[in-house]
Amino acid sequence: MYFRMLKNDLKHKKTLNIILLIFMVLAANFIASGISTILTVTAALDNYIDRSELAPYMVFANENQSEALNKFLSESDKVKSYKSDDHLIVTSDNFTAGDKIIEGNGILGTINIKSQKFFDEHDNVLETVNDGEIYMPNKSFDTAGFKFGDKVTIKSGSTEMTFTVKGKIKDAFLGSPFMGITRFIISDKDYKRLKNSGDFAGMYLYAVDTDDTAGVNSDLISEGIGVTQTVTKEAVMTTYTMDIVTAVIFLVVSVCLIIISLIIMRFTILFTLQEEYREIGIMKAIGITERRIRGLYIVKYLALAVAGSAIGFVMSIPLQNIFIAQSSPNIVMSGVTSLWNNVLSCIFLVAIVVLFCYLFTRRVIKFSPVDAVRSGSTGERFKRKGVLRLSKSHIRPAMFLAINDIISGIKTFAALILIFTVGVLLIIIPANTISTLKSDHILRLFSISESDLYLLNDSECIKLHRMGTEYIENYLENIETKLRENGIESKGVFEQVSSVYISYKDKNACSLSFKGIGTTSDQYDYLEGTPPVEENELSLTYITADAVGAKIGDTVKIKYNGVEKDFIVTAMYQSMNNMGEGIRFSEKANIIDSNDGMIDVPVQIKYTDSPSESEKQSRRELIEKLYPDFTVYSGGEYASFMMGNITDSLDSSKALIVTLVVIINMLVSVLMVKTFLIKERAETAMLKSLGFKSSDVIKRQVLRIGIVLLVSILLALLVSEPISQFTSGKVFEFMGASRIEFEMNTFEIFILYPVILFTSAMLSSIITALGARKITSSEINNVD
Amino acid sequence: MKTILSVKDLCKTYIVNKRQNNVLKNVSFEISEGEMVAVMGPSGSGKSTLLYSVSGMDNITAGTVEFDGRDIGKMKKRELARLRLLDMGFVFQQMLMLKNLTIIDNIILPACQANNGRKRKERVEAGERLMHKLGIIDVADNDINEVSGGQLQRACICRSMINDPKMIFADEPTGALNSSASNEVMSELNRINSEGTTIMLVTHDVKVAAKCSRVMYIVDGDICGEYNLERYSENSNLRERERCLANWLMEFGW
Q: Closest to A391 (Cβ–Cβ): which among B81, B86, B104?
């Protein structure tokens, strides 16, 4: 009997069932591929880090710092063992590869380094590198557009060597696009030749085996041993978070799809129950139990869920492979993929559908045999649902009826509003996140003040850091003079960055510190307090302040180059540098003079005469000609450069989500209009008999969807800020920015997407509502 | 009297499961202005189909139907809708109204749709006037669930009258009512008819048909007889009319 009823139902409610099936397929597809990708990549990452034999604690130190560090590590009882490997520092200026540009800072290492293992692109351990060959991670290979066999020349001073690009390496420590430093691997013999030339500065990388990384770090700071940077294994793993960002986005989408599917399921179940009250009443009258009656509906949705999950499962496999392919260039994936996650996700979806179906069919209990006999009327009187009065309204009937229907059936339409709002939010949130990431203001979160142009040349910037404050001031003055001679009034700005130790009471930490030259500390954003002005004042990020337990007004100790000074904390700010750590000194502070770090910050140019946009463009072209060795960026471009391919992958996800939401909205519109047409067949026939034209009935149907969609868009715009904070704001928080103001692309958010969504939903509603033409006024006698 | 509805050789055929079903076969008749005509006949004889076909609610297969001099078979759907809105009124056995509107709002809905220059206040006043006349003014602001069947049908009559139609078509208007409500509704229809509105109604009830001026009897899609009740004066005993009509109907096996 179940099978026969199921077959009947599927035949008579074809459109509704197909739409519900599509939702279940999409939900199963995304949940299976999303969960599976996250679990696969997370497991693969653990496996990759283990197989790379990455140490729990790593320290970068320059040649001057290595002696003291060796002594500390060998004497510390918290250190089980340590290994050190020497590397050579290279910048983009050292590389020549035809028209290809290797961006950012890097280090050259040999294949025989002791601290970790490398893997080739096929996930095999890289054992040998022949002389004359070079391997590089995917982030440099792809960005520069290399092909295997391309030639790369490394040159410094009088030393010059040409290498053949042999392959890509997977470097667990420095391979993530989020790691600022890139490692290139060459043979032992080539490495020694370059090292012995003396034209390259050296850098030591220590891999420390310990069970107490915090203890070793604390001891290192309290001993005052200067190092360039320290990194824990956990911090390395967090740099791969972005490798699963697309999968996470689609997992969120799948959760939304499940919610939408459940809302639609509730709607169709209630609609079916209302339609079939007679059958239910008669079944009860002849003694069929409620459980068996509910079973009829549960079997139908179970069948739909099983079919949807099965198709979704099959579709999830290629989608999952696409997600995993995004991570596989950076992570060793082999040996950990499993389809069981997909199967379990689909079973979970089926279970959710059946559970909710059971809950939604509770109404069966309410229908009695009397309903069947009395045409659904038990004699009960209901309160009026309508609020608006046609007799007091000036609106045309079609519009009035549409508005009145929404207000009267607010429960049904609230579900529709919820579906549309979720869809619009799915577009707005990534769109706002991308706008924020691409905006010029994002640079403020990287402790960089807003300027008109950012000029980057790795070797020049490192040189500026090494030469110290006075040299930088002269350098900036020369730039200003040169630009003035070319008709550009401007101010040069540079951020001095260094790693310093901070301690307060018994707590201490190592943090990046910043001091602006050519700017003042009040030109940065602070969330609390007042900008540091005096020589002995500083501001802290919340992460650094929490690390040492300091608050505004406290006096902290700063150790740098063996000197210790007291500073008063005057303000708190947020930063996305180094997962949120940071200290900003006043421009008067005499703390950072010069350092041997590898931090590449740009030279900034601020126009002082407020030029027009077209003037800015021509000035940029002129500056590019005047400084051909520098790459010139706008604020947004420089932010994109710093954040690697996150915005690109978010951009492609956004396009996919917009398409998906448009399809969802169209399907939901079709489903709703179709259901209303069936449900309101009698009303439609009656309206036509009164002289309403088909176009008036179509207008009523379409206007309802239109009004609901407009309300949903407005609602989504209203709640987008708090929801963005709650969702993508958490990603910013994870990176160190706890209070982010989301940027909004006004054209996209207020015009483009609403127009796309509105037009597509209206189009599908109109096409579906054309079905009203088939309902004739004479049907009034054939309907219940 | 001027003819308001003229039907000539009307045929209506349905195709059900590839089988042709001739519901109306060459039906011809005329209704003059001010008449109140009842259509009677056994179930499935084509009474309602005839009503819907001559009122433009359903397409006709062959023949001509002229309403107020206009051939409705040649009219476009839009024109037919306009005709139903302004010149025709409909009352059905099922007292269908929009459930989210009050009684008065349901009544003035066709007036709002007509958009014929009447102001909002005038429309509401017209609705209230009709309700007052039919004795349901007290339930104007009630929901449709809050009134009795008789009141609801009277509200349906008000709705059919709101645009001052030339003719009212009623399909078993008392079919779902008890006898007292049925009498109330028929009294109102009689009153409307006496004020000049032509009425054509379908009924199974001899008591209802006896209140009309003429009765047509339809069997198997063909009008097989007409009985004129105009010969009875207005003051004649209703029972007498019913008895005579029943006798006539018995000739057809009623």
A: B104
A208: closest CA among A197, A218, A216? A216
> What residues of A are in contact with residue B146 (Cβ under 8 Å)?
381, 384
- B112 with A696: Cβ contact below 8 A: no
Q: How far is B243 from chain A (nearest CA, A)?
A: 30
Rounded Cα gap, residues B106 and A547, in angstroms: 71
Token pair listed for A544: 């650094």
Alpha-carbon distance B240 to nearest alpha carbon in chain A (angstroms): 33
Task: Point out the domain boundary residue: A210, A230, A263.
Answer: A210
Say yes or no: A200 and A218 in one domain.
no
Considering the domain architecture, whether residues A63 and A191 belong to the same structural domain is answered as yes
Q: Do B120 and A382 touch (CB under 8 A)?
A: no
* Interatomic CA distance for residues A309 and B78, integer angstroms: 47
Q: How far is B180 from chain A (nearest CA, A)?
A: 20
CA distances from A23 to A601, A663, A674, B148 (A): 48, 10, 16, 45
> Averaged over B18-29, what is the pLDDT?
89
Helix (H, G, I), strand (E, B), or coil: what is residue A645? coil
Tell if the CB–CB gap between A386 and B81 is shorter than 8 Å: no
**Is the pTM of the predicted complex or chain greater than 0.90?**
no
Q: What is the mean pLDDT of chain A?
A: 85
Residue A382 lies in a domain: no
Range of the domain at A351: 1-56+212-376
What pLDDT, in 10s, does the model give residues B87-119? Answer: 999 998 888 888 889 999 999 999 999 877 888
Q: Which of residues 58-87 of B touch A (CB under 8 A)?
A: 58, 77-78, 81-86
ipTM higher than the 0.90 cut: no
Domain tally, chain A: 4
Task: Report the alpha-carbon distance of residue B249 to residue B152 in Å, rounded.
Answer: 31
User: Could you tell me the fold of the domain covering B3-250?
Assistant: Rossmann fold (3.40.50)
Report residue A253 as tokens.
């989408």
Please tell me whether residues A628 and A646 are part of one structural domain: no
In the predicted model, is pLDDT for residue B15 greater than 70?
yes
Per-residue pLDDT at B54 exceeds 90:
yes
- Which of A210, A242, A273 is the last residue in one of the domains? A210
Q: Give mean pLDDT, residues A5-16.
A: 75
Q: Taking CB atoms and an 8 Å cutoff, what residues of chain A touch B115?
A: 396
Instruction: State whether residue B114 sits within 8 Å of chain A by CB.
Output: yes
